Every structure is written in C-alpha cells, then in structure tokens.
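Q: Structure for this?
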Amino acid sequence: MASFLGHSAALIAALAVLPQLVGEFWAYTLALYFLYAIASLGIGLCWGQAGFLPLGQAMFFGLAAYLSGLSLIHFKDSWLLLLLLPGAALAPGLLAYGIGLLVFRGRTLSGPFFAMITLALTLLAFQIANSWNDVTGGFNGLKNIPGLPGLSDFTDLYYISAVALAVCLLGIAWLRRAPAGVVWRAVAQNEQRVRFCGFALQNVKAAVFGLSGVLAGIGGALYAPQQNLVTPQLCGFLLSADLVIWAAVGGRATLYGPVVGAVLIGILTADLRDEISYWEVILAAIFIIVVLYFRQGLMGFVEPRFERLWRRRTERTLDSPARPEASGDTGLADAGFALDDVRVRMGSVNILEGLDLEIDRPGIYCLIGPNGAGKTSCFNAMTGELPVRSGHIRIFGRARTGTAADLLSRIGVGRKFQAPSLFPDLTVAENFNIGLWGGRARLRDLVRMGSHGWSSAILREAQSRFPFLAEEDRRAGDLSHGQRQILELVMVLIAEPRLLLLDEPSAGLSQAETQEVIEAIRWVGGRLNACTVIVEHDMTFVRELADRIFVLHQGRLLASGTVAEIQADERVRAVYVGASA
Amino acid sequence: MTGNSGGPLFSFSGVTGGYGATTVVRSVGGEVSAGEACCVLGRNGVGKTTLMRLLTGHLPLQSGSVSFDGQPLDGLPPDRRHALGLIYCPQERPVFDNLSVRENLTLMAPAIDEGRYAAFFAAFPILESRMTQSAGTLSGGERKILSFVRAVAESGQLLLLDEPSEGVQQENVERMAGFLHEAKAAGRALLIVEQNLAFALGIADRVIVMDHGEVVLAGAAADMTEETLAAHMHV
Amino acid sequence: MDPILTTNILNVVYEVSTLAVVVLGLAVVFGLLGVMNLAHGEFVMIGAYCAFFVQAQNLPFLAAVPLALLVCAVLGLVVERLLVRPLYARPFDTLLATWGLSMLLREAVEAVYGRAFRSVATPLTGSVDVFGADYPSYRLLLTVVSIALVAGLVWWFVRSATGRRIRAVVNNPELAGSVGIPVTGLARNTFVFGCCLAALAGVMLAPLLPVNPTLGLDFILKSFFVLVVGGLGSLVGLISGSGVIGGVESVVSAFLDRTYGYTTVLIIAILFLWLRPNGLFPRT
C-alpha cells in the first residue's frame, strides 16, 4: 500500500512539472499522445495481461470521439454535458463488453478469430462513419467542435490529458496487482485451468475487453474537444494498427510500456514522417523485430527491476470464506454421479458407446481399461468438454449433461488433468490463489489486495505434507514434473470439491513420488469426504487405493467390483489378453 | 548390408526427453544389430511411445545420443532418418485417414509394385479388396495392418514398430510375426514396442522392460520367463 | 432470359470465382503450415502494382504475370525463411509477424507510389453478348480463367503426387515425416506457391480494381470470412465458403450499396463464428 502511494505521488509530480520542462508547444503535442496512450493501455490489458489481441481498438476510440463531438456540438454549455461526456467514454466499453461476450462464447476464439473479427469491425466502423453523412459529417467529419467549457489555453488541455492518463495508469496499476490481474494473467497462460477453477472464462475476457473499450473511450471522448475535429480515420485500421505497435514496442506486458510506446513513437513519427519517406516502413520492420526477438518491449528491460522493489508477497492471514452452497444441494445423499447410456462420437469414431456408470457414495474409485477404452473421454463428457450425443449425466442428483466446466467447479467438481495443467509463469502462491478464489471470490474480492492473504486449512495441511509447497515465491514452471503434479492436485483440492476426477495422477512420477501422491489422495478423500474417481494404469496404485474398480472397454462398462473380484474376472482377463499376456 | 560391420546397426544411450519441460523418458539405452529383434515392454504410460518418438526425431532429446550404422543422428528430422533407412510405424494414427489404401502405399512411389506387395496381399486380402477406399474407413486393426505392410515392404534396414499388434485379430498377429521373422532372416533389425507378451517373446532376441520412464530390466529374451515379465506389466 | 438477371448472375459468378483463387492460396498455406498469413492480401496488392508498373513501362499486359510471379516468389521465400519458419511453434506470433509484414509491404508500396488510386487499362476491351446481356469481355475472360485455374489446381491437388503428399502432411504431419516426405521443404514451396497465386490474382484483377496500397486488406478479410464460413476441412468447404461470401456481398451490394454488402458479410461471419465455429465443412 505504501509503495502504491509513493508510486502515485511520483507519477503525479512528474506529469505536473513536465510542461515547465518542455514548454507549451510540446506540452500540447504530448497531450494528444497521452490520449492515444490511454487507448494503447487497453491493448496492454488485453494482449499483455489476458493474452488476446484486439486489432480494431480504434473503433472504440472513434465511437467515443464522435459521441463526445456530437454532444459538445448539440449541447454546448449545457449541464447535460456532465452526463453525456462520461457516457461517451463508457459507451464503447459497453459495446466492447457485448462484443466480447458474443465472440468469446465460442471455444477457440482467442487467437486469430478474435483479432480478425475486431479488424473487420473497425473497417465496418470506418465505412459507417464515412458514409453516414447526416450524423458523422461523412468524409470531412465533424468540424468546429467546441472545447471543454472553461478551458482554453494549451496548458489546460495538457493538464486534462495528464490527469486522465494518471487516473487510468493508477487504476490499472491497482488492478494488475489485485487478484483481478492474477486472474487475467492466468487466462493468458491456461484458459482450461481457469475454467476448471470455476471462473466463467468468457465473462472474464469480455470484462477485460470492456475495460479496454472504456480506456479507448476516455481517450476518444477527450480527443474531440481537444482537437475540435473528428474524422472517420479515427475509427480506421491505421490508428488501430498504431495502437498495437505502440503497445508492442513499449512493452505490452508492462504498466508503462504502452504509454512509453505511444509517446515516444508518436513524437518521433510526428517529427520524422516528412523527413524520412520510409519512416512507416521502418516502423513496421521494428514491430516485426519486436515480435520476433524482443517480446517484452522497451519497458520490459526496465520495469521488472522496479517491480521487484515494491512487490512483497502478502502473508496468508485470512481464512477464505466458505464455499457458497450451491442451490439444490441435499448433502451426502447425492454425493456421487451417474452416467446413463452416454454416447460420444468424434468424427467417424465412436468413443463412448452407451456408457453406464454410477457411483453414489464417497470413496475412492478407479477406472481402468486398455488404451482407447474411453476413460479420459468419460471425464471429458462429464465436464462438458465433449458433446454428448445421447444419454444422460447426473451429478449430485441433478441433470448435468453438457454443463460447462466452470459451473461444475463451482458446485464442487474438481478435475486434475493427465499432464499437469497449471499456470507456469505465475508463482506457487498465485496458483494457489486461483484455486482459492475460484468459486469463492465475489467481484469485490477480486479488486481487493487483502484477498491475496486468503488461506485454508487444507492448504496449510498440504504445505506441511509437501514442504516445497511452502516456498510460495517460486515460479510454478520451475518445479519438477512430480512437484507440478502435486501442485495441481493441491490447487484442485483447496477448492474443496465433493467429486474429484483425477486423470493418471501418477503419470511420469518416480516410485517415491507416486507413493506420496497415493498418501495425499487417501488423506484428502477422507478429509473432504469426497467421491474420488481415478483413471490409472499403474496396478500397484490401483490395488493400494481403490475401494472399487470399474473396467471400461470400447466405450462401455465391462465390469465393476473390488480389486479381488476384478482380478478374478474372466472377461477382464480376456480384454487384457488381447493387448497383452 | 551397408557400412561398418561389427558394431550394432542401431544404438542409443542415455536417451532422456519428454514434452516441453516434462521429462518422460530418463536415461534409456539399448541397441539392435542386423538380423535381430529387440522388444520394449512395459505397461501403459511408462514412456515407451515417447522413447520411440525420441529415437525417430519427432521429439528433441534433452540428453543422450542415437546412432545408426555408426553415424550420429543428432538433430536429423524424421524424413532424413527415413532416407537413411529408419522405418517407423507410430502407435496412434498409423495411416493417412484421408488417403485411399492405395495412396497410403504409393505415397512415395509412382505406382504400386505388385511384386513388392504380392505376399502381403495374399496374407491380408482385406487390403487388396479395399484399395480404393479411404484408409479412414478401415477398422483400427486394419489400419495397423496397412501401416505394418507399408513399413515392412519398404527397403530400410531398421524397423521401429510401436504396438503393431494392438487391436489386430489373433490370426493376423500370427501372420505379422511370420513377416517379421522373414525380415530378421533378411538381415533387417527390429525395434518393437509391445504389450502382447506372447507375440513379443515369439520374435524378440532381446528385451527391455520400462517402468516410470526408466529401464528396469534388460537382457536376452531367452533368459526371461513370462512370469518375470508379466510381473513388471499387468494385473 | 432477362438481361439484367443474366448480368447479375454473371457478376456473382465473377465475384465467387476470383475470390476462390485468392482464398485457395491462403487456405493451402493455412492447412499445411497452420499459418494464417495476414500479408496474403498484400501479395494480391503487389501483383496489381506489377500490372500497373508494366503498363507504365509500355510493356504488354501479360508481361506482368512473370514479373509478379518472380517478385512474389522471391518475397515469399524470404518471408518463409525469416518470419514463418522461426515462429513455427508460435502460431500466434506468426499471425502478428505476418500482420507486421502486411503493414510493411503496404507502407513500402505507399512510399513508392503514394496513396492515390491508380488505374490499369483493360487489356481486352469491348463486350460480349451472353444470353442477351451485354457483358464486358475482360470480366468474362477473367471468370473463365479463374474457374479454369481453380478447377485445374483442385485436379492437380487430387491427382498429382505432390498434391497427395500435401494432403498427407495436412492429415498427419508426424507420420508424413516418418514415411519420408520432406516436410520442411514442402512447407516452404507451398508457402511460396500461395504467395504466387495471390500475385497472379492481383495481376488479373488489376484492370478492374482501384489499385492502391490498402487493396489487400479487403481481400484478406474476405478470404478469412470464406474460411470461417466454409470451414478448414476441404475444397468443397472453400468453394462453398467463397460462394456464400462472394455471392452475398455481390448481391447485397448490387441491390443496396457496398456498406450494406460488407455489413451483411461481416454479420454472417460473426454468426458462423458464434454458432458454427468449425464452418460448413469442418476438418475431421
């Protein structure tokens, strides 16, 4: 907190004295690039934090500029401006949020699809601005827009921009360090794990995109009164491209990168465009080189050093709130799940062909079967990852066929994947926090620094069981394979699920590590009184843990029973003889 | 036979690797000489397929070395290894599903050479009857047979087969074994990953048993009893 | 038949077939390399400028074809080596890098020729009577050439050994290397081939377009929409995607105006992304 205040004071002081240092003309020029910088900060959020790239951000900038320009023209000196101008800044945010919800609802849209849709939308925005003469003034744009009432000279305009920039920067600095920022960076690294920790992914991404729309909106809304002119180019792809270049060259993942990029390149461009005829070409080449070799950008070399000075991990002093009970929970009577004649098909291959499986009480259950028997597909169908063609799935007594993973996680279904699925670039502490926040944190918890200090009894027990988990400042990606398997397991456990799906938890582990995992599963199964289902090939593992075994073969349940019963079962032996002795 | 005789045709040592930062196979070594078959055994998920992908250049080695005919293969892409004579049949997706059976067999040759395939078509008539159908319409076992035929009919000196018998009917498994014995007799070297113990022991001269990514047992097949091996593998 | 209807039908066929040529290059590269080349449209633009250049030098129009192929082949080789291959395992960065490349090419052409719209004279003037409609000869020729080109390429893709190998790599890249297909070289040649196809389209379309540096943008977006609608699975998808996008745009543009045409196409693409993200003919 103290470091945040110090940081704020330094930023405000620097922005306040700048006009005295550079003179009035440059202050005015800077003011324009500050507005662009605010919009570029939005790119930093989407691309540098949450990992998806908007290529059409200028449409939000332009929209706000038109709204603000029209408001100023039609309601000059009216008190209504007090509502209309903030409205002009917020409207693009709402639009962006809506677009985000729509586009991110599909599955694979983070990469090229999202970028291309936004690029297409910005071209459409340009077309509309260019051809809707009655409202936008067409090609010539809105002219003679009055300035903000009461502000006249260049220095005033500078201070307006500077204040807006400072407010936005400080707001973002806060959010980046708050739990919300951790969740964003988690999204960039592993969307699947974020969903399985109980976060509605499309809402998180749409919110980030909406926020970036607000930032572009603030820049655009102030642009109109400052420049007194709004043309269709403000919605165009050239400005959209510039915003991305600035964020990339300045450093998309850093706080100040987009600002440094916008101001530095903006001013260089203003200065050099007429002198060097190939300036824009050089700029594009610089962008390509940054993409290829210097992904962290200019501030990537500087900022991390400072960040390390302020950043100190919050001690875990607060117990996390209890999980909110999902509606319709009726306690242990509905502890398990049932699959009824479930069929799943991928392409021309039938993966599950009428699978029936029912588990109705807490305990440890193992799913075994030869390769391709449908074990992992069974988990995928249960967690909504594979479309079910026919049949029914009930979990805790309610119909859950096709229910999305994030909702399942919130009602108490935890899943561990075969290859460790976590957030390698986040610290161990941050990985735990995602597990703790998912399903528990409300919106206000996500903007509060105090939520970094959440803890839980399960977490403390896990840390005393596995001492390496107490070294919370380590990068999760630096842990060994076995340690990552255990970290993911604990991430799932601290959400306190009542149904635990574990896909080959011992894969790739040494004998000693396997033994530790066996003990951890036994401990937690009893501790949570959960229903634990394990896909496993290692028969030692199965023998030690399983209360009951289910054998899958060719997408159906072949047999079920105790370890002894299964070992004596002729049908099971026959299946295995097909593939082995 | 080409190159320097005396040493094994194919040898690897200290092979370590996996996916990304994850190590699946740890320091595995072995060798196969001309006219000899080596079987890699172990239950599911112990790293056998990963080992094959490391040996064939589909995954980068984290450490260790692989050499063929006395020549190191470090960093060679799969197609260059194929040109040297390493013929590989992967366990999963062993054929091109979107190409016809004929196209699968003639992908790298202009026309189907009847003589080359006659014996195979006689043993597996299903292939000849399905020549113009896309390989995606074949059953899992039939795809394995197609992949097996493609590989064995090629002229390369070393065959690397990843679970060739998986999903294949017993009588066809026996025919496969027959072709593999012929290949051995012709001086070719075989490295085979298997789960089917009877099939494996019928062909193998040497055996490597893996568990948790490491070699837990290795030696001449004649010295191994089925009980010892089964103890390392299954139920 | 009503001449106006005939003209409109011919316009739709023209739009769809020329679009299919552009998309074919993009789709083959995407299918084989998994690289969405956002600079694909700029290769069309460069092709068009080659036609303009040739005409300014008073050379015959057809001289633009070898020139455009040469320029874009060399450019394609350099780009593949410097941008595409090093980023093979980083598809998102490839997208960014080719997007940077599209800016670079656009700005470079702008620095040389400026932003002004250039026009290229039609090599074949006059018009032909088609079922009573008076249709411009060059457009008709272009339609025929485009259909022949697409059909020829599809035939080659299905029947030739190289086409078979490309399909093999698309289907199963890992196995392709194992059976001895030189995947890296094939990828390079395919990329260059895609660039050349775009350049050829640019030359052919130059007389009918306002030639300017931002011309490529329109093509890359439309091509992308075609892939969204048609799916990445097959040639049938590619052609039906071209049919939907090119057809809808030319029909709506003819009855309303270009903005509506563009808006309709965009809405269709978004609906597809939302409701049918794998397109009409998904890759299995």
